[in-house]
Amino acid sequence: MLKETVDPARxxxxxARLDDFTAEDQAACLRLLNEHERRRHDAFKVQDARLQxxxxxxxxxxxxxxxxxxAPAHWRFLANRHDRPFVDPELGIAGLHFxxxxxxxxxVCAVGAIxxxxxxxxxxxxxxxxxxxxxxxxxxxxxxxxxxxxRAAQPEFFFAHWTLKEAYVKARVMGLSLPVxxxxxxxxxxxxxxxxxxxxEDDATRWRLWTLRPTDEHLVGVAAVPAGxxxxxxxxxxxxxxxx
Length: 244
Ligand SMILES: CC(C)(COP(=O)(O)OP(=O)(O)OC[C@H]1O[C@@H](n2cnc3c(N)ncnc32)[C@H](O)[C@@H]1OP(=O)(O)O)[C@@H](O)C(=O)NCCC(=O)NCCS
Known about the structure:
The protein is of the alpha+beta class and about 240 residues long. The chain contains six helices and eleven strands. It has a single domain, classed as CATH 3.90.470.20. The protein has helices at about 25-30, 35-45, 45-65, 130-135, 140-150, 155-170, and strands spanning about 10-15, 75-80, 85, 95-105, 105-110, 115-125, 185, 195, 210, 220-225, 230-240. Helix 2 (about 35-45) packs antiparallel against helix 3. The relative contact order is 0.19.
């Protein structure tokens, strides 16, 4: 089969709904996992979390096999000290990077030639606990805008911010201890931009950010650093176990 190419000017965002992740797909997915992944899978007590984990590992494996002649079950991964997984360099695969996110109902996997890629998916209809979370996650200017919104508009606003901040934090290979309140997002006029209000050691203008609504229930944030030229995002729906 013709392989997908990894283009430095493009990030592919593969997403799969979990409402059609059948028992047959789940069994096929389980067969792709290595010993360590199987143990992690079996250790989940909550069925939904176990399913998301299974679908996530399955999606990463089948998606990476779109790009290189390696069977889904043969991918090997290592993780950095902050648990971020990456392809084991011993496989001899250069320039193929990914990041994964999952939530109830959806798994997403961003793939590109760029190492600094992060993705996060959340449900956009969750409003429980927002009053407590907003002051912890939003910058002061964002919090003011949030407070002025009608209640019904607050979840969408909050999760658009949350997903991009989380995507940025996940893309920063060095770790997850960044103070997200010091990231200030601006969604106007067109694509989102970011600035830092505190001591985050980075140049915010290096980053491209995208917000997507792949389903009526989900919001996805993607953050990446272009390799020098333009960078586009290509969102593609798939199944976790795909034959296309
Ligand atoms: C570890 C963390 C990134 C996981 O996020 P999550 O929302 O629970 O889970 P997601 O579905 O988005 O991502 C999970 C996947 O990210 C990947 N991942 C794990 N650690 C990672 C890291 N340090 N960096 C990037 N990706 C990571 C893994 O592939 C993981 O999937 P798997 O464990 O099923 O293989 C997150 O919990 C965290 O610590 N965030 C801190 C940032 C923060 O404060 N956010 C608050 C709101 S902005």
